[in-house]
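Researcher: Here's the sequence for the chain we discussed earlier.
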Amino acid sequence: MIHVNDSKVSPEYRAYLESSKWQEIRNRVLLRENYRCCVCGDKATHVHHIRGKHRFNEASHLEDLCAMCEPCHDKLHLYFEFCDNLKAYYEQKRHEEAKAKGYY
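Model: Thanks. This is the structure I predict for it:
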């Protein structure tokens, strides 16, 4: 199951998420969490990378994965996208202000 920002997912990672290896890892996490969302407790159908540091090597780092329901997972990724957009906005604003003041 590929997530919200699937247009940003590389072909390599997309293939991995569709692989039997990932499906086995995903099922282990869902079973560990009794198919309950770590946020709201509803039925979980998604698995989220908490840090994303161990992509492609999750089997050795199941602690970096949590079970989530689709609505909570969607909200989380929308929040990340919002933060990225906000950061980009303020970086651009600081750049424009510094340029206007002649710093570069």
